[in-house]
Amino acid sequence: MASTPKASTDVPSIAAEAVLAKSDFDSTNATVVKGYDFNNGIDHHALLSSYTTCGFSATKFGLAVQEIIRMINKKLEVPVEDITDFNSHTNRRLSNCTIFLGLTSNLVSCGVRETIRYLVEHNMVDCLVVTAGGVEEDFIKCLGNTYMGAFDLPGKDLRRRGVNRIGNMLVPNDNYVKFENWLMPILDQMLEEQNSQGMKWTPSKVIHRLGKEINDKSSIYYWCYQNNIPVFSPALTDGSIGDMLYFHSHKTSGLVLDIVEDVRKMNNQAVTAKHSGMIILGGGLVKHHVSNANLMRNGADFSVNVNTGQEFDGSDSGAPPDEAVSWGKIKMDATPVKLCADASFAFPLIVAETFARYQQQFDQRLEKEKSLPKKTA
Fold first, then answer.
1. Chain segment 169-193, per-residue pLDDT in tens
2. How many contiguous H segments (helices) and E segments (strands) does the chain have?
3. Where are the extended beta strands (E) located within 262-319?
4. Whose CA is closest to 50, among 39, 61, 35?
5. Under DSSP, is residue 328 helix (H, G, I), strand (E, B) or coil?
6. pTM recorded for the entire structure
7. Looking at 60, 205, 329, 331, which residue is catalytic?
């Protein structure tokens, strides 16, 4: 009988070379991947700080925090009492870093509204860019509540009941009736001032006026009015405010809003900035409007985008920061960050790790500024 050939105990060389390939990697200055150890107890600051070395989107979160801290440190680098220059279009002191905050309307509809209100209450940002819904939803919440619902509530049933759904939140249509009753007399007064005083209204002037009229400390735009933070909304008619302007035009025609004056005002805020930082939550109009203003100064020095957009469809919403670099909207030597996340849970955590940790410095700065001479004509 023929003997059975002895099986080879040698690993095939091609497999060994593929699986056991030698590394050519210098780990001397490399960062080790490591998450938070809950054996150390519950420390939310330490937990969020650990995200930087956690990997994946957690690391992007940590990098976004670091980028915003760089903005804040640059802003606070020069004491407010040493700043004598004003932006001639906004009458705000030219801080060492002008921070632009862009946000879509859904973030005002949800509880992120209170986070945005906190930032403007403490004068932490210099400019807001919002969609129409991001304006009206703030005022509507001063007049009536928004309630929790569910994403899958049948639309036809809600419509029959006069209830509007925003994602998993519900807004009774009565709130919009209250908004109309509040807004219409103000529009009448604005038209009268236009006709009798030659007042030239722009979207930012309208928002400023409404922030004054609402006189409610829970409002974002009340604090923008108090701290003279300009709010730009070039598509102000694209929402309930547009509906009210439409109804008002049938009642008394003639009210005019000039968007050209506003684009000049916003672009000049970027052009005159000593340094510039962009924080953009969401995409679409607000992302491009903030970025395009910073093109006028050959790019922002700092940039953080938080959205869920992807670049495969060529949209500006999903475009990564490097595309903005190609247009001159972000400086070539900047370290921009895009965090792919829902801003409704990401942004409050970002603020907790950035602006909120500097509140004392911002409050002292605001108090000091109130005691300084105002801009003279």
1. 999 999 999 999 999 999 999 999 9
2. 16, 9
3. 276-281, 302-307
4. 35
5. coil
6. 0.95
7. 329
